């Protein structure tokens, strides 16, 4: 496989200096440096998320973010971008995925957590389309998707990822500043103009 499989398929809970156990959300994994994916974090997972020093969360469910979670993102100055994708077998919207990808290619938003309810289908589709943008072959895209979805993998999701036209995303790049910015070692992402970016739903001052 051309792409190097990511380390850290799932972080185990670990102890802090005061003996407290930090527990990651279900289906948590690192997509790449500074980019994470998971299912919906429980309140008990918030101390773990704090260790990631997140700048942004991409939330892919239509339901309102719980009050406790809103307080968490506000107190840690995290931007919350909500894209309300229904958790059904209906086809995901191309426009929604394109908007979410625009968040993912902007270095200013990193570190980022992507999550839906279980971290399988909606999150899997977004990560799969990101992989296509990164020139992954479909076999590798589907293999990663199925690793998280397991026996709940949906043919409709894989058909969507196969059909998603990356040219839609590349057309958006015409509005970018054509300058590369590094995040971490050997990572390059394009930086958007401020006025072309989707706006976060919650942004602390």
UniProtKB/TrEMBL annotation:
Region Disordered, annotated ranges: 1-26
GO molecular function: inositol-1,5-bisdiphosphate-2,3,4,6-tetrakisphosphate 5-diphosphatase activity; inositol-5-diphosphate-1,2,3,4,6-pentakisphosphate diphosphatase activity; phosphatase activity
E.C. code: 3.6.1.52
The keyword Hydrolase is annotated on this UniProt entry: yes
Cross-referenced SUPFAM superfamilies: (Phosphotyrosine protein) phosphatases II
Keyword match Iron-sulfur: no
UniProt record similarity statement: Belongs to the protein-tyrosine phosphatase family. Atypical dual-specificity phosphatase Siw14-like subfamily.
Protein's UniProt name: diphosphoinositol-polyphosphate diphosphatase
Natural source organism: Carnegiea gigantea
